[in-house]
Amino acid sequence: MIALKAVVLALSAVSALGHQLASRQPKRGCATEISAAQKDAVEADFAARRTGLPAKKAAPVTIPTYFHIIRAEETVDRGDIPESQVIAQMDALNAAFVNTPYTFELKETTRTTNETWFDVASPWGDDAVYQDDMKATLRRGGRESLNLYSLGFTDVSDGLLGYSTFASSYESNPQDDGVVFLYSTVPGGSRAIYNLGGTVSHEVGHWVGLYHTFNEGDGGEEWDTCDVSTDLVDDTPAQLYPTNGCPERSDTCPDVPGDDAIHNYMDYSDDVCYNNFTPGQVERMIAQMAIYRGL
Ligand SMILES: [Zn+2]
């Protein structure tokens, strides 16, 4: 019975992940999604507020960071990440953002034993109540503070590595703000290929206001056109679908100038492949953070 429930949950998770786990089966699963209607509204608001934004120098900004470890038991393979890996994750995050104004400073690590949160909390359907509970219990700080939650997603999906809220979502739902990710993706974790800390860097990319570099439509659906670049950043070329692995090069939109941004943190490549945010992405994150997080 328990096994059956796990299968049903996994199947519903796969359908919620949409194209990412269906057609081409890239292994990285990110469940950060936005509907087309929401995105239109958010981007109209952003464009209007950005126009009135005073020119801002990219001054260094320190972001208070709270690292919430949810464990099913007090063992590493049931989520109890050792402090050394917490530090290594913070280092990986700061290395990823080295060419941005942002430095993430660990304020507190919390450890909570809760098997239900560890196994089934997710953004989807009935299980969302568990992640809502978790965030209501643990979230610290205001709109300027990053809250990271490590979970197992054990009964949710094999492919899910993480998800985040966007900077622009804070105003309407402050309690939901933060990044949720698979505990074994921290540096030295057991999730091979994805255990250099790239998942947290990718999700924090959403948290500072970035979309995926590949083209997405409503709620993360795949687009079949290269005529648009749905991340609204000029220097990431149009890309038809996510990268899987770490190919030598890839160009899914050959009629549009520029190769796919396979080394960009907002693609789906393996951790070892990640090495940059573009100047256009940094420009967008500075405006997003100023407008929606007051930083
Ligand atoms: Zn993502």
Q: What does the model show?
A:
The protein is 30% helix and 14% strand. The chain is α/β, with parallel strands linked by helices and 295 residues long. The protein has a domain at 28-51 and 58-213 and 277-293: Collagenase (Catalytic Domain) (3-Layer(aba) Sandwich), CATH 3.40.390. Helix 3 packs across helix 6. It is globular, with a radius of gyration of 18 Å. Bound molecules: zinc ion. It holds the Pfam family Peptidase_M43. This is Metallo peptidase M43B, zinc-dependent metalloprotease, pappalysin-like protein. Residues 193-289 form the Peptidase M43 pregnancy-associated plasma-A domain. GO terms for molecular function: metal ion binding; metallopeptidase activity.
Helix and strand arrangement:
Elements lengths: L1 H16 L11 E2 L5 H16 L9 E11 L11 H14 L5 E12 L1 H6 L7 H11 L7 E6 L8 E5 L14 E4 L15 H10 L71 H15 L2
Parallel strand pairs: 1-5, 2-3, 2-4, 4-6
Antiparallel strand pairs: 5-6
Bound molecules: zinc ion.
For the largest beta sheet, what order do the strands appear in spatially? 1-5-6-4-2-3
CATH architecture of one domain: 3-Layer(aba) Sandwich
What portion of residues belong to β-strands? 5-15%
What is the first-to-last residue Cα distance? 49 Å
Structural class: alpha/beta
Series of secondary-structure elements, N-terminal to C-terminal: HEHEHEHHEEEHH
Q: What is the CA-atom radius of gyration, in angstroms?
A: 18 Å
Q: What overall geometry do the principal axes of the alpha carbons give?
A: globular
The chain-level mean pLDDT equals: 90
Q: Give the number of helices.
A: 7
- Give the ligands present: zinc ion
Topology-level CATH name of one domain:
Collagenase (Catalytic Domain)
**Which spans have pLDDT < 50 for at least 5 consecutive residues?**
1-26
CATH superfamily (homologous) name of one domain: Collagenase (Catalytic Domain)
Biggest β-sheet description: 6 strands, mixed
- Specify the helix fraction band: 25-40%
**Total number of strands:** 6
CATH top level of one domain is: Alpha Beta
Protein name: Metallo peptidase M43B, zinc-dependent metalloprotease, pappalysin-like protein
Keywords: Disulfide bond, Hydrolase, Metal-binding, Metalloprotease, Protease, Signal, Zinc
Organism: Mycena indigotica
Family: Belongs to the peptidase M43B family.
